[in-house]
Amino acid sequence: MNTLLLPIFLLQLINCSNLITAVQAAQYNNNNAFQVISENPELSMFKNLIGNDTAYSFMLKSWKMTVFVPTNQAIKMFLERNSQQQLVDGFNSDLLQYHLVSATIKRESWTEASPANALNGQFPPLYLTTTDYNPYKPDEKSYFVNNAFVIEAIEDLQGNGPNAEGQALYIIDEVLSSLKPNRPTAPTALELLKEPSIYGLDNFDMSKFLQKVQEKQLESIFSTPGTFFIPTKVASRGTPEFDEYVVKAHVIKDKPLFIRTMGDRRSYNTMAFDDNVDVELSFINKTVRFTVEQMYYIQTNTIKNDAIHKAGRVLSRMIKANIPVKNGVVHIIDKPLMLMDMAIRDFLREQNKLKRFYKLLEKHPDVLSNIGKNSNKTVLAPDDNAFANLMDNNQNFAGISEDSDEMKKLLLNHVVYQQVSFSDLKRSAGFANYTSANGVPVMFRLVGTDSNARLTVESGGVNATSSLSDLGASDGILHIIDRVLGMPFNTIYEKLINNPMLNETFKIGSQGGTQNWNSKLLDKNKRYTFFAPSNTAWMEFDRANPSEFKQLDQGIYPSISRAILDRHISAKGQYNKKDLEQTVKKVDTIQGELNILPDPTTREIYIEWEGTRAKIISSDIHGLNGVIHIIDKVLAKKRDLKVNAAINGQSYCHLFVYLIMGLVSIMFTQQLR
What we know:
- The protein has 673 residues and is of the alpha+beta class.
- It folds into five domains: 1-27; 31-172, FAS1 domain (Roll); 189-339, Roll (FAS1 domain), CATH 2.30.180.10; 345-481, FAS1 domain (Roll); 492-642, FAS1 domain (Roll).
- The chain is 32% helix and 27% strand.
- The strands form four sheets. It has a seven-stranded mixed beta sheet. It has a seven-stranded mixed beta sheet with strand order 9-8-14-13-12-11-10. A seven-stranded mixed beta sheet has the order 16-15-21-20-19-18-17.
- The protein is elongated and about 105 Å long.
């Protein structure tokens, strides 16, 4: 095709595409809701539900109406959570009408959770919501009906007949399920709080929270529009008091919010707000690793506090979410918000995601006791996922006995005997330095912009990020972090490959294909001490032995490389710098014995082998399965590089192959003659 014609062709193609889209839209606009449903294969299950009832078919063909149609996938998901019979008996008679509104509602009229009354007046209103974030079309808004996302909107349909009315159809990704009340109308949040049996929720104990609401004479706020969080475990542990602020912290006024319309970690003002106290609320969506279990949490953050109410966050797990009521939405949670009446020790014990950390603390009662005694502290609690990469193949903790003094020190790395909160760091330019209970420096830092700022903690060579910060307790503050401080999560193989000072050592160890020398460093069941020559050490060795090193560097004889590197590693234990300074005098390697010579004057440590003395120039590079110390010399002699010494099994194998090839060639030549 002529290149000059190409732009014209593309323009015509675009015009044709736009014309096709316009024609399709026009075809939709001439249809009624029943025709659109019938012609879309992704809506066939909904079509089957209405197809056998002439009344519904007539309404969808002729009436002024808005219909919310769940996709086949949405109905299948509903089926998985409910019995087939419930779908037949319940969906047809009740829930089907909950998807129909006898008015034409266009998106331009949707406001923040504007209510719409469904055909079935026994059910609560449908809440129509818009949000600015659309995961599928970033430049457009998202539209929700209750918790269901609007996938496609067809707003200019027309019913049949002489008095035909306008229709709108919205394809949604969830069934609009609602609990059916045992009376003619849906309850308000207050009515549900007083009588959970209206929705068949008798198994949730709301009575203690109701008692607190009535004691503070705050029943009226549960009859106004909003979002309501009702805790089931209301047990007084003493101070602080379950007062008016605590009750109000469970209500977001005027905003009926479902899980998906709340947005992950978006903050909302609660009714606990005045000149003295300000409490915000946000939703947190967490996936538990391995089980892929979805966990939903609500947290309050007391950002303005007084002498009674402490600053900080309180976390509560959602037990049953998205319960539409007459005046908004109710979410049932497991314990009260805002109330910091639980000690850190109790919080650690009750949190499912902190089981490994608490189990280790139980093996060190003195550490657990100290956490309980000190009333002004910060605990950095690694979640269970943080430990997952630190387990060996036998699911034992990497390199450290769980009841050892070393483990005790590791646990103390996670305790700071001062309160360090997110807001404190904001006031101190975003970072601050403290010391752990074990005397190890701990750096707290905020990273990211204000709206997306995250708390990070660096200590013991590990940088951790807080997944949940500022969790308030009666005796301090807690941050849940994603790494174990002081315990690396990479093997020494990964430490070797990522250290620019050890490029040559890694290159030489890579010789020999997939079963090269370096591969042993991936073994999580071993504990290595590796005295790794630096790049400069190899350069010095090259200058002293140029021809031999050339063969070594090119990988001509991998057995020589393995033998030399074996002299630099011990698989009999992990010896840190402190061990080499104080207790260890000799280290047995695979290829000989190394003498450890600490210099008390300079505090340098030397490694000696057959008169060659190498200095440790960088120590304690910890990995999951050992430690690396970088040395300034290669522990090898000229004799190690002799070719004769290198004729190993692999070399003989090569000679044998060449011999066979020669014999085959001779036999083939004789046959030709």
